[in-house]
Protein 1
Amino acid sequence: MTLMNCILLASALMAIGVYGLATRKQAVAMLLSVELMANSANILFASFAHFRGGPTGQVFVLFALAITVAEVAVGLALVMLLYRRHGDTALDLASEARQ
Amino acid sequence: MNFDFGFAIVAAVIVVSALFVVRAANLIHAVLWLGVTLLGTAALYAQLNAPFLAGVQVLTYVGGVVTLMIFGVMVTRRHDGIDVVAQTEGADRGFIFASALFVVLALVTWKSAPHVPNPAPVASSADIARALLGEYLIGFEVLSLLLLAAIVGAVVLVRRRDPEPAGEPSPAAAAVSEVNP
Amino acid sequence: MSPVTLAIVATVAPAVAALLLLVLSPLRHRGAPAAWVTLLGSLVSLGAAVMLLVARLGGAPDARATIPWIEERGRAMAEIGILIDGVSLPMLIIVCLVALCVQVFSIAYMHDEPPRAFGRYFTLHALFLFSMNVVVVSPNLLQLFAGWELVGLTSYLLIGFYFAKPAAAQAAVKAFWMTKLADMGFLFGLLVLYVSTGGFEWTSAPSATVATWVTGLLFLAVVGKSAQFPLHIWLPDAMEGPTPVSALLHAATMVAAGVFLVVRADPLFALAPGTREVMLWVGSITAVFAALLALVQHDIKKVLAFSTCSQLGYMVAALGAGQAFAGFFHLGTHAFFKALLFLAAGSVIHAVHSNSLDDMGGLRKKLPLTTAAFVIGSLSLAGVPGFAGFFSKDLVLTSLEGKASWIPWAMLLGAAFLTAFYMGRLLIKAFWGELSERSSHAHEGNVAMTGPLVVLAIPSLASGFLGGWLATQSSAQYELHLGLTPVLASVMSLAGLGAAILVFRKGGQAPFTHVLEKLDTFSVVDRTWAGAYRIGLLGVASLAGWIDRYLIDGLINFTGWSALEGGSSARRLQTGLVRDYALLVTVGVLVLVLIGVLR
């Protein structure tokens, strides 16, 4: 296990997350993709922490976890709103700003 | 350089389950596959000498976020008893961009060639606790405020506004229901 | 007091008066006090000028004092100050004396004006005298230009004094436009001079080419200011102003500023024989052309106006012949007798309440003093031997003798005949013959009116004898010799007078009156300018309008249009779909990373 491998893994996860974000229509599915991307960042933090030593990297992973949880909470609340407004969770519907 | 089977297996699990997350046709399946990815990540943390992180990952992500997601999917389902179809669109475009991103990131990684032969000494959970409540105390407290704000914000967002007369959907909802009866 | 102090006092006194009247509006609105302030200013000016003259007669040298003006990087771009020498001192005295006479005359002539207008009139007079003094004492061309423009402004204001009268307002605007058009020449001439020599001195000697350019441009301004053909058309119209104004500005002093400029800038003109050739011809043509038109005028002031054009033509021709002194001398004598003539005409108009020659007749019985003044002025203007005009005109004609072409000389001789002829016509029509109905009620004005006439009559008679002294002052050659030209000139003037008596005594008409009247009413030059205005200026204006509307505005509109179009095409980029934005963010990251890697 080398740092390079870890970074490559994180990159793959990030690319998959971008793919999901670009192709999924439902808001929840897009949130899932965002989670993937956040996870990829966490993996980077953790691996840097492992190879560098010291607790800082792990502390940052913890912070990132907390922020992700908050993001999911707010994101799901928005999804609820969207559903209530349009009867569907397809984010494409939420494009009024364009008109 | 000997081949690291443990890492290979964990990495394969993560990547494959992540692919299922973005490709699964059923939204519930996608959420469950995300659970697998997160578990894999927890395993990776364990391999990276971060057992505390692995525990937290399992607790908050697999226990909290995935459950929350499933709730989200359930609550926003239109019809009971039918699978929630996760629609996809523009797969080619997404693939091109995603692979381009991966290629570029890999290229950068390879070019900068971060080569650290010997892993540093392990940071124990006690070290992490000291850092959290010592060096990063302010960040820690601010984060708690952020969580509080997020929770309050989420509640405010989804709260029904009472003055809205029942049975009279907003014009947009009406338009949607005309299109999709 | 030192000469410099005196010169400054002479220049600034009218400015103090003008400033006082401008600032203290109650004083101005009261009328009569304004006149006294102005008169005091002029009197101080004249007194200082006379003291300067006395000092000079006592052997005082030229006085010059300047202070730097518009300093830039430690170097003065120009200087401002005074220069008192053999040219500016006589001019200063002429200007102050004539101005004082005219102002005194105005007290009586403008008596019936409401106090406010009366005060305004004298304020402008004080301002004019200051402006003219600035021109006269200026040590370089830049200050001269400043005074020149000030003079143009006061001229505009005074021509349009009766601004409620449409004709006067139009005449003022016309005079302003014509002279401004010409003044562009002055401005560009100054620019050329500054660029080529780095200064505004008339003594600086650039190359012949530069001198030709500068003098050519300056001469354009002279043509405008001194009412030379074909820019002369504003001067007859300027007679819409009060008659004393015509006497001071449009006969004696202001229109002579052009001649004064050439006399000043003589070293420059000496380097430009081409410009001088043009001047010679323009002056000669103007002298004859204006004299012919003077022959058929029925307005007494217009006769004098055309006569002024004609006499200025003499001066310009003399300058063109390279005899600056001859032009300057004629300027001096002309200032006196033309101011006298105009003031006498003012006296007549005041008595008859009409400008028209047809309303006059037999006035010599009613207005003996005015008649005497008018006769003296006329004879002087006609160049009858012994009178001031004779000496200067003789000098002008002599200076044309022996030039490459004899035609200008002959033209000016002819103009001399015509001058005597039209002045004879004027005299006979206005002062001799039957007493007309309006004339029968005429009576001489008070001493404020007759006094200036007497004062001005003296130099009109005698200033010709000062030629020798004036010549030594400006170190020019002057000798009265009995040659062919003086004799011919005398014969011409006497013949003109005689012919006038023969023709007009019986109420006859000049030969070719018909043709000339046609010429006058058809006013070829006027129409040409009006046409040029319509075709040229309006054409340019409409072209500019078109450019403004379609090119400039088009550019602006195109900017707006392209912003709108660009916006609506960029709008298509904004799909409102989150996944498209996600992709775009990815693209941005890719580009940034690639830049970082490949750099």
Protein 2
Amino acid sequence: MAEVLRGNLAQLSLLDILKMLSAGNRSGRLDIRQGAKSGEIYLQYGNLVHAVSGTHLGEQVVYTLMGWLEGDFSFTPDVEAPEQSISVSTEQILLEAARQADQWGDIKEVLSSTDAVFKISASGSTNTVSLKPIEWQVLAQINGERSVIEIADLLDLHEFEVAKIIFGLTTAGLLYEVTDSMNAFREIVDESFFEQLMVNFTEVIGPIGPIIVEDEIKLLGEDREAFPQSKAAELVERVSLEISDSVKRAQFQKQMVAVLRG
Amino acid sequence: MKNGLLEINQVLGVWGSSLCSNQGELIESAPPTGFNKTTLEDIGRKAVDLLSSAEKSVTGLTEAVIYYSEKIMFLIDLEQAILIVFCTPSVNISMLRMTVNVITTRWQSDKKVQKRLQAAVVD
């Protein structure tokens, strides 16, 4: 089964690919991959008959995949759809997809990607804001850690729908995107950090040091193997409070602040 | 003293810092761009009011973190003075608190700093 079409979405948009395959009355499976995510769209004589991505099925999947501006695609001809999940006409889907593609253009000006993470703005909106139930549900999931995709999965909604709501809430001044420098704190700390923490802390407090560190890690609800960078300073601070001598505590903090700064 | 403030300013997310007396008068500053002495003293007086009124209800209160619009103001009561640190929401408060502790502990054994702080105290 030879692949007749393969490329990158950055060069050719999904909408253009589907228009081309539809106009050519092609049958087969279009595979789309973006990192760990993937989706499949099946065509039969140029008509879209089935689309699947993860646990999602149907035309909404097509709209979600339209939001992937980067990634690889490949079309394998003459593969039959395992089922039919699309009931509306291909023309309707392509028209709606074109409309959503325009909206994605606006959304992308506010959302850097669907992996973007948002926080609730402390200042809020200057105007009265009324929210629909679905908007409230999305807002309730914003915690500065969950991405747009993760929120969509949690609420069992499509990425486009969630992205559109977040776009609206952001332009209303209720949310702001967490920048890359903030996201950097989500990284996992290196084992060498713990080695230095144990050595420095044991030097000040004695052999009970490692036990206190392990206890504090547990109290923070974390594991040493996957300890987030965002909590490293908090761990050091909590551990340092066990040092009763204020000068020794400041000395330990100075050493560890230098370690944290790298 | 100025070097200490500049060290605090090196913490990621810190925008500037200043030190004022228990009456809000400016002792030293490494402020954010656009903040003049009058503005800093105005903020200093408000910080003094806020900390002293909060201390009436919370015994042993030595610091306060105020979230204002998209900025954060971190106030630390040093007994003779108040340290004000202007931050963005990206600041890591634990990192900032430890850095401040390292510097203020150093100030405690620095005679020149102590002399300046004592001179600024208004009874």
Protein 3
Amino acid sequence: MRFLLRRLGFYLVAAWVALTLNFFLPRLMPGDPATALFARFRGRLAPEAMQALRETFGLTHAPLWSQYLTYLGHALRGDFGISVAYFPTPVVQVIGTGLMWTLFLAGSAVVVSFAIGTLLGVAAAWWRRGWVDALLPPALVFLGALPYFWLAMVALYVLGFTLGWFPLGHAYSDDLTPGFNLTFIADVATHAVLPVGSIVLATLGGWLLSMRNTMITVLGSDYVNLARAKGLHPARVVLRYAARNALLPSITSFGMALGFVLGGSLLTEIVFSYPGQGYVLVQAVRNQDYPLMQGIFLVITFAVLGANWLVDVVYLWLDPRIRDSAS
Amino acid sequence: MSGASAPRGAGLGLWVDAIRRDRKAAMGAVVLAVFAFVGLFGPMLVGDPQALVGIPLQPPTWHHLLGTTGQGQDVLAQLVVGTRISLAIGFGVGLVVVLIGALVGVTAGFYGGRVDGLLSLLFNVFLVIPGLPLAIVIAAYLPSGPMTLALVLIVTGWAWNARVLRAQTLSVRQRDFVAAAIVTGESDLRIITSEILPTMTSLLVAQVIGSTIYAIGAQVGLEFLGLGDVSTVTWGTNLYWAQNDSALLTGAWWTFAPTGLCVALVGFGLSMLNSGFDEITNPRLQLERAWRGHLERRGFKPTRSTPVVPE
């Protein structure tokens, strides 16, 4: 329990740092932030929109600390201001519509990639110097060096555009109404194959290599040699004895990978016109919609922090050393 | 081992030797050398990348080896000219990020206590905050251009290096030779620069390589989003324009395929160089190889044994 509380404290600090960065960034712009910001929008925005913008950022003539407190108060109540691109919709509402799709895309990609990559890593370590170990790591390193979104572009071009095996974009067909039925779920799954697949391909190599390297160390340890000497079935030695312990470092990096993949999936979404945060983000960048950009940054950060805490819970459950020292 | 104990002057020669001995590392080095050559001299050999030279979206021909873009510019010229800025930012950021990481990580690991607590908190927070969204927010507020991109990539990229180097410093600090240096009254700065850092040479090289891969990928991603200066020619802006001219849905594969392949080739070359270094400088892998050779010469089949590394 103490372990989980300590981690929770850490994530709260991280959330506070993100909020504070978010507050100071507009004020670090060259020149007076208020004037610089408003100069960009002059003539393009109605006076009431300008007023809303001013209030969102707390860019008033009050002293900095009171601006900061006002801002924190707004943020804690979940008020990230009003979007410029989608005026007068509040930022939270704009973000809310696409968030589930992004979490679905990135979440399933991370889980699938972790599962396949880890299993391949076990195989590569067990049959070391076999064909799995000789061919897969360099091939996957090459794939991993490709930018996520570029892999997505190629997949879309070859499998979607040229061969026509998969739909060219969006999360589901236009003629379907979202609902909890088999047709809709199957449709969403077909649309997710290419985006999820391209992220999985790009991230597989990392999981494979990390698992392979830890497995090689663990396979050389005394307790594994003993298990082998006892004449246990190789599958049992590999999976129950070695892999379970070798998995721990991968679990630790799981949380961090989530943040990384969430970022990458934003770009993948753009390629597939997927209705998630990525599309909203492009709109925000093109229209210089600062409140929206900052809102997306905060929401994604909070999502990643929450996911990391869940990973900690799993870790506690998996590693008896931490469990025992904590109780 | 070899890098740390060798006399200073022979350091570079050893590395060159090591690269030549290892097939993977040699392959990586050749790929990188080709790109370095293109980046340095390529822009002099091709014409103006922004010039409108032909019909838009023309497939590859003898005249335009990689076809033309949606605006009618030569794709090959853009690719070659883009190499220079993209690689310069990549390698520059890779170096700076490791420098900052080493400064923070080694300080934290060496001094321990409160300093360590505070610095560790700092880099752990930066590690857990997702990089790309943060980079986007920062880049949006600064004037767009290569310097902004470099700055953004440094801010979002240093933390991982700090974490790895702190862990390494912690373990090196407990060795006897560091204790001996402290007892003989050497200054902290001297202990760090001439006792601790030299033992980490191969790790530092690996970090620079890894950070460069990250910097190139992230940079291309940010520019693809339109956060770079879209009027300059870099790999990222090439992809931005390809997506903008809906190259995919018109079937113009030649406007985006070569750029991505180049990004991947550079990344692949760097990783190959890295894994080659690892095999060379990791005493565990080295001994294992020697042991296997020893057994095979005596007609035994090598089994999975743990070679003991003499300390």
